[in-house]
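Problem: given the chain below (730 residues), write out its structure.
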Amino acid sequence: MSISVKNNVFTLQTKNSTYQMKADERRILLHTYYGEKTDDTDYSYLIQMADHGFSGNIAGTENERVYSLDYLPQEFPVLGSGDYRIHCLEADLGSGVCDCLLLFDSYKVYDGKYSIPGLPAMFAGEEAQTLEIVLKDGKEEFYVRLLYSVLEEEDVITRAAVIENRMENPAVLKKVSSACTDFMENGLELLHFYGKHTGERQAERSPLAHGITELRSTRGASSHQHNPFAVLAKPHTTEQNGVCYGFAFLYSGGFCIQAEVDQMDQTRFILGIDDQDFSWVLQPQESFYAPEVCMCMSGSGFENLSHKLHRAFQDHLIRSEWKDRRRPVIANNWEATYFDFDGKEILGIAEEAAKLGVDMFVLDDGWFGKRNSDYSGLGDWYANEEKLGCTLGELSEEVHKKGLLFGLWFEPEMVSEDSDLYREHPDWALTVPGRDSIRGRSQLVLDMSRDDVVDYLYRCISGIIDNSKIEYIKWDMNRSLAAAYSKLLSPERQGEVRHRFVLGVYKLLERIVTDYPQLLLEGCCGGGGRYDAGMLYYCPQIWCSDNTDAVERLRIQYGTSFAYPMSTVSAHISACPNEQNFRTTPLKTRGICAMQGAFGYELDLRLMPEEEKEFVKEQITCFKKHYRLFQFGKYYRLVSPYENKNHTAWEFAAEDRKEASAAVVYTDLHANPKAEYLKLRGLSEELYYRLTRDGEELGTFTGAALMNGGILLPVPKENYDSCQYYLKAE
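Solution.
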């Protein structure tokens, strides 16, 4: 049993971790332990009970003064309970003041994994076990159901919360977080992944200071600026040693992650929906479902944490029929043509792609409506046959005749003011009546909270899929939400718009993946602006960044790898000089970097010299030959781009340790260079491995030698040189 209950002490056991809480004699649900695996001892004995001053006491404890929620570790703290720290819930139950006090009411344990209506959630069969704890307000018929599922072998615990109003009057929710974890210690460090457009998921690690540290997206999407995944680590934790805790929020909208080191040197960590500009009127007999959080603990460093999350997401989050298949090598026309193309030119690029061994051609922005720039056409999802010179079905047929699959770019959630859709339905845009609109990329945002908008978009997308042979859709989102006002909601309910928007996006995605399970759906938000676990529930891969420069991708893909499987990283080779930073990088290096994920080309293949075309054929052959390693092998961050200025290195190793591939990219050159060594990981010490570098035989070595002695790296021959190793057990 992965969940045990003794005297209202709830102990959750994964393969290598223990999580515990307790409903005490005053019916407060305390958090008592989260760490390396131990027994089911009641760890509340570790809580120091004392009068700490200026800490309020709940009813019935005033004369004791040592019982205060202001310092006790709790499972779901609320505002108005005398706890002045950050909290999960702010609820006005009718008084006009947030004064909720949640007390333990009941629990149940059952086999299997819970699901959440309208929201992504990890899935499992009978191998999972679920604990459901019900908390009730001390005075009102207002309940919170806390859901915990344990995936024991995967070493993860998932959490969610359901808020239920059984009163006769509405309640107003002003903040709803999904999970809180209290640590009875200070000194933890926060590893998070900040960024910007074309520079997402930059790893940053710092000690938590006293007070509140906050990571937040107010943009209506999980954003380029912050990622809804973070790690708490003990000092000196490294890739292979030390204790760390990973928290992934399965949500694609605005979020808030908070950490607070309090007056007693305790650390509280909370994840939830962005509460800025949020309120939710919860009518009698209604429920509000908070999104899921996936928690994972490692006692042996970041590497082990990443491996656990990769496996859990691969097996229990990604649902696509493509999840275990080799992803097609893609040629996308965006950086080749932008908006300036016709059907003849598209077929010319497709023909060249087919000759080189590419699997799929993707027609990007500009194929629909009157879309010859980014000022018009969004929302008019019908093919521009005048521009293409044929129907979309005919174009698709011609691409397929060349031996390629065919895909399309969409941006369903947006609308141009210069479009037939906006002229017919201006009320479908999220704009504030009587005020000038906020625009991004010269476009407005559709009100995805409306069923008529979702239905319209489904009809458009499904009609195109039904009438043209489409195997792939790239689903983009190229601006953030601002001043989001829905014409269907009353003024007091406008605080619901942003969350309802996300629910509408999920509703549309669910309809698409349910009705077209064979479709390969790739997420995108101006690159990596919506790269989160919530989107992986619908999309088995996500465009990692609009920055296709191989050297800058080293950091972007390094940060992404801490939580997300490398099979989900969509990475393409683009032309040089690179359009984002004008850097020139060898084609070999661009390929090696792109092979960290779902592989493809973002350039005009027709313009490449013949010598480079031959090299492209070799790259594609290599990727197809070793795709199981590149997409599903264990990923090792061998040399960090933050800690080594000379080179960055990574490795994929097979689960059975009989095969591996490692890559090195040089980022600095030196005269009279010193010797550099690369120590591999994930091999068997006893086995002998035949080692090659860029196809050249280097000899046979034991796994012990390669992991402890390492490989002597060659001296780079040019700027941003690279090399790729392959190992096979004999």
